[in-house]
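Input (structure):
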């Protein structure tokens, strides 16, 4: 995700634009990531 965000914020001139289809494809992955984070958040210490 970090690489994708970086390439979106600082695109090279020859990089194709991000489309709505790209976002829809990655939405499920992002939702799964958030669900996993919610499960382990209470098990993690602040430091």
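Output (sequence):
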């Amino acid at each position: 995700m970090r690489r994708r965000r970086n390439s979106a914020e600082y695109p090279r001139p020859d990089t194709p634009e991000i489309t709505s289809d790209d976002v829809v494809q990655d939405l499920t992955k992002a939702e799964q990531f958030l669900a996993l984070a919610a499960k382990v958040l209470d098990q993690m210490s602040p430091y």
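Notes: The first helix runs from residue 2 to 9. The two ends are 24 Å apart (CA to CA).
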